[in-house]
Amino acid sequence: MADSGKESKETSVKETGKEKDTSASTTKRKRGAAAKKEKEREKDRPTPSAPPMQDIKLPDKYRLLPVPKADAANAQPDDIVQLSRTAKAAQITLQDDMLTASGCKGYRMVRATHGVASGSWYFEVKVNTPQNGEDGHTRLGWCTEMGELQAPVGYDQNSYSYRDRIANAATDTPGCRFHDSTGVEYGGSYGPGDVIGCWLKMGPGTASVRSRQRINIKGVEYIVEEERERTPSVGSHIAFFKNGEPQGTAFEDVWAEVYYPAASLFKAAAVTFNFGPTFAFPPGCDARPVCELASLAAAAAATAAPAAAATTAPEPAAGPVDATAEPMEG
């Protein structure tokens, strides 16, 4: 009986040792596989001594604009002008019609999907009643691709706007125009129920549609904008209308850039865009409805496609077609 107990104990010890050996072997194999995978990944990673993945020549002075990630949820048709799902501040809410926007807290911006490089263009914006009976303010106008979304239209040199009224003033006081954070008394005040017409006429020639570099920094794609001296579009102007009544020229000789219809909303402000072709108050000027930008862009893309397939030259930066041939705080 004693020998039997001894044998049983020795067998148990041997089996336990065998289990330990098996477990250690499995762990060793897993570590080896993980090390192999890491070694394979290291081959694709750039090292200080390795050449750069792409030759990027940055200008002496520049700024970076994050590129919104495009995915199926944010996809929008090219054949219709809408408010952009991606070129808007996160605090801005868009309705299903993709023409109505509402704000939250401080001034934030949203712009349209299509921009203009030349010609004469017009769109309307109806100012809606603020949500839940709260206060709200708006700035309406035009902005470039580099317009700051986390700020009001007219905040910097990349946008021009018509504000509903002068800050801290009664609603029957004059309105205000803004550019580069400078406000000047302009036109009449406006509010819920009013329809504001926005007219942009570029000077002769086309805007300076620049080729922009794109770089990837830690998984985020950025547009590189060179800080350079801007060129005005001589003869250009921006004017606004209130319920069909012209408010006069707000800006002249604006920068020669590509401009998008834009609005910034403060607190509970809400607006609805109308890109045409039927307007509540036709402007009575030589302007085309912004909705036509979609068909022009589609035609330009169709024309460019065969040429792009037949050449290996670098793809030009996307931009609006030349249409000159046809007519923070509240």
Describe the structure.
Residues 1-59, 309-330 are annotated as: Disordered. This is B30.2/SPRY domain-containing protein. One of its GO terms (cellular component) is Set1C/COMPASS complex. The protein has 330 residues and is an alpha+beta fold. It has one domain (62-309): Jelly Rolls (Sandwich). The protein contains two helices and 18 strands. It has helices at residues 2-44, 292-309; strands at residues 62-66, 83-88, 93-94, 100-102, 108-112, 120-128, 136-143, 159-163, 174-179, 182-188, 195-201, 213-217, 220-226, 237-242, 245-252, 260-267, 270-274, 288-289. The strands form three sheets. Strands 3, 4, 6, 11, 14, 15, 17 and 18 form an eight-stranded mixed sheet that branches. Strands 2-5-16-7-8-9-10 form a seven-stranded antiparallel sheet, with no helix packed on it. It has a three-stranded antiparallel sheet with strand order 1-13-12, with no helix packed on it. A hairpin with a 5-residue loop joins strand 3 (93-94) and strand 4 (100-102). Mean pLDDT is 79; it is low at 44-53, 311-319 and 321-330.
SSE diagram, text form:
Layout: H1 2-44, E1 62-66, E2 83-88, E3 93-94, E4 100-102, E5 108-112, E6 120-128, E7 136-143, E8 159-163, E9 174-179, E10 182-188, E11 195-201, E12 213-217, E13 220-226, E14 237-242, E15 245-252, E16 260-267, E17 270-274, E18 288-289, H2 292-309
Parallel strand pairs: 6-18
Antiparallel strand pairs: 1-13, 2-5, 3-4, 4-17, 5-16, 6-11, 6-17, 7-8, 7-16, 8-9, 9-10, 11-14, 12-13, 14-15
